[in-house]
Amino acid sequence: MNNLYDILNFSAKEAGDNVFLNVPDGTEERKTITYNETLHLVQEQSQVLKVEYDIRLGDRVAIIAPKCYEQVILYYALWQLGAIIVPVSEGLGSDEVSFILADAEPKMIFAHDAFIEKVSSCSDLIPLSFKALKKSLGKCDQEAPDCYDQTAALIYTSGSTGRPKGVILSHRNLMVNGISAADKLPVTEADKVASLLPYWHSFALSTEIVMICFLQASLIFARDMKDFSKNLATWKPSIVMAVPRMLAMYRDQIFKGIEGKGEAIAQVFNDCLITGESFFNANGLKNPDPRLRLKRLKQEQTILKQIGLMLGGDLRFFVSGGAPIAADLQDFFRDINMPVYQGYGLTESSPVISCNTPGFSRTGSSGTMLSWLDPAYGGDWTFLNAAGEKGKDLEGELLVKGDCVMQGYWKYSDTSAKTLNNGWLHTGDMGKVTDGFLYLSGRASNLIVLRGGEKVHPEHIEDLIRELDEVNEVMMIGDNCKNIYALINKVDEDLDDKMIAKKMAAICSDLANFQKPKGLLSLTPFSPEDGTLTPTLKIRRKNIWQRSEIQINAFLKAHKEI
User: Fold this and answer.
1) Res 150 pLDDT > 60
2) Where does the record place the AMP-dependent synthetase/ligase domain (predicted)?
3) Fold observed for domain 447-558
């Protein structure tokens, strides 16, 4: 295999009658598309791209759309021609869309009908609807060019610290990452995978379009978030790709469903959660005690079976990525027989670096390293500490190298040189490995240094506070201050700040004294529209400061910090 298109071609030959895409069709109906049918659609679309639009090897093509199966067809069609996909988030503001399109300089732009007008105002190029590709000019019968070490995708980062940068990923990068992830996760051709993760994000691109295709399983597509929430159970997925916010939503739905069944059922459910704590060990393995097994078996045949039906009855596990998951959320799903396997990576590593798997899962960890990082296959990993020392047994910044490390940043050779040093990708993420499991503590660039010299990684504290029902979003501040403080978005503006402060103090009670926030400031909601959140809903610290600088400085002055 020398081209991503070869993966689809291979799977069609090996398992052509397997369903690859399960998609909406019409108002309420759905249809399935086999691997053979997918390959046929791709080859027809390749012919249209080649003949009608003169797409050739190395051409960049931008795609702007909400998640839909048409993207899968278009991506593989472009790869068959050796072209480069430039997926752009439909949730970005016009300013960022304009910047990306100008920076990437695509030959063509394809957009979902709902975004044609928006994209038209962001580029001199006239965007085309996906409908323009539904012509019939026969099938493209050319073999995909050997592009193994050539660019397959230009993926723009979220830009949490400034303008987005285009990460250059090769066919090798994405193929090796998808196959390496497949080695970890027990996905079979019988699995049905449901997901809302967007295809402008490298996690979904690698794990779904590449890994699931390689394993010849099925992908389930929803019309939108409402359709996903309402009909997920009817689709009976065996695996759900999720982010922590989605998992928190599912947990809330489960609790509400249990509360509606009365106090007796609620007590049975609570007992089930307590049993789960002693039933599973640190790796998620089951306790062999026969008395506990019998108790658990009864729970699985009653309350846990009912809960499972809320998500279709066939769910084996969740795969979570994109952001750290709170330990109590991970434990909750483990205790109801719906384990969450958290992974970690970044766009610059194509993206997956590590993940938890059945029998090898630790709450709070990002799992064990993927095979592409094994020295036997040309990869490696290490940590760089503050003293400039490198070693696997140290705590510091994670460095990785191997087949999945990006080719560089588009038009940013200086930044590439800083990020890539002698083959090592400096991830910017701080952590350590214990018993083979990766534990991350935060971003090096987000480090808060207090006036007394104490150093605080804010992410862990933010994750704790975000667990409060009253808080939507949070950002810690305190650089060059005596203490740290929390900037929060409240769920309801009428909620009392003093009450939230008490709950915040309680949830942070086990932290070191210098890690405990000494006050909070409630701000107007952060959002992707005003640039204070990325499209993946991560906070943009610099933009929050810029937007609310007057309020923040007044707050710090009132606390005698400035």
Assistant:
1) yes
2) 12-410
3) GMP Synthetase; Chain A, domain 3 (3.30.300)
